[in-house]
Design brief:
Blueprint lengths: L3 E11 L4 E9 L2 E6 L5 E6 L4 E4 L1 E6 L15 H10 L2 E9 L6 H12 L6 E2 L2 E3 L5 H13 L4 E5 L9 H14 L2 E5 L3 H13 L6 H5 L3 H18 L3 E3 L5 H12 L4 E5 L2 H4 L24 H13 L2 E4 L36 H11 L5 H16 L15 E11 L18 E11 L2 E5 L2 E2 L24
Parallel strand pairs: 1-4, 1-5, 6-7, 7-8, 7-9, 9-10, 10-11, 11-12, 12-13, 13-14
Antiparallel strand pairs: 1-2, 2-3, 5-15, 15-16, 16-17, 17-18
Helix pairs in contact: 3-4, 4-7, 7-8
The structure holds dihydropyrimidine-2,4(1H,3H)-dione and zinc ion (2 copies).
The site of dihydropyrimidine-2,4(1H,3H)-dione (DUC) has 8 residues, from loops.
Amino acid sequence: MTKFDVVIRGGTVSTASETFVADVGIRDGKIVQLGSTLGPGLEEIDAKGHFVLPGGIDSHVHISQPSGDGIVMADNFESGTRSALFGGNTTLMPFCLQQKGQSLRDALTDYHQLADGNCYTDVAFHLIVTDPTEAVIGQELPALVADGYTSLKVFMTYEGMRLNDADILRVMDTSRRTGALVMVHCENEDAIRYLIGLHEAQGNLAPTAHATTRPIVVEREATHRALSLAEVVDVPVVIVHVSNGPAIAEIRAAKARGLKVIGETCPQYLMLTADDLDGMDWEGAKFVCSPPPRDKESQEDCWNGLEQGVFDLFSSDHCPFRYDDPQGKLNPKGKTSFRHIPNGIPGVELRLPILFSEGVIKGRIDLPRFVALTATNHAKVYGLKTKGSIAIGMDADIAIWDPQLRRTVRHADLHDGADYSPYEGLDITGWPVTVLLGGQVMVREGKLVGRKGAGSHRARTARQSTEHRKTA
Ligand code: DUC
Ligand code: ZN
Ligand code: ZN
């Protein structure tokens, strides 16, 4: 009998629907057999007492994204994917930002140059459309969807990035025709501008004003609008990084009307509150992200959304900036006003351990739901056909977890390029210890053994394109 390349023996395997004890046989990078007495492997991994889970897929991360005005993101593809790997992930979906005046193709060329050969995990790029010219809508997007870039994000906030409703409708319409999936960042920029004006007039410039100028109502209104626009165009939509109950209620209502909505939330909305932005001196800058963390009630609402299926996706929105750095949070302007503090926090390495410890260990969600929220649903939603599950024929992207390992978060133990963690001091039970990408051991018992460049970009297949039902 041909040997397996690797056998993971005796672990507790979980998929999105069941949990069972099995050996996992791997050959040529794929899972080829599951059973109780598999033959030998060239490499044997003892997983008794451990969980054998699909490698995490983080479908919302920002890496090496141009951030304007002397600001530099803390992670490039090498550090970002290495950090992700230590957190039990095997695929990341970073955003490729189209800068104003730039073609999507050129943006992708730049992004591939940064990523290719430098990744420890697989990657699949989403596009960010900021300049939806006739050429972008009519030619570039359809061609790129055909080439496997099948999802894109639009912003309703951030001057220079946001689209107006007419342009969002145009992007949604081309997405319906091509089978691309639209993701929307929902915050009302004009309302935020108005509130910023009020705060600045009163001299409220500290980081905490970031949260008060982006209150729940601006997210709720934009969520309602994005869902309404998707309903008009008759297209599925992903509402990303949802932070609170009223926005969740909008998603529930749209689902009840029959719209296909995919909801996403992130660790910061379970673990942080706006009070964290009110730290000593300018320490609150460490927690500035958009939408901002809210309050205890919102945290509870987000947990309920995860438990009850309003959310299909749990992503990190990893968007790291160094804190004590003139190119990061404490840039010269950032020290004078919240308005100039770059938005975003690191989280790619702790997304899975946080949900495991706070969700599975504390009994809020079971292991199959954890797997669905962190891997399987991401693969299904974004068309990563061979990823996200432990099953025959799938890529052998696997994280082996020690469910009893307890560690306190210290940024010094993490692997990202930032100089702090927003979760410093958090006690976590349950960590990934060994991670395989395409059957290759990348992290063994907490030590990096894989090589940079083992991960590569994965093209995807689009959903079925559809006719507008109301024109039929
Ligand atoms: N907000 C975003 O829209 N993107 C990245 C990080 C953030 O805080
Ligand atoms: Zn966003
Ligand atoms: Zn984001």
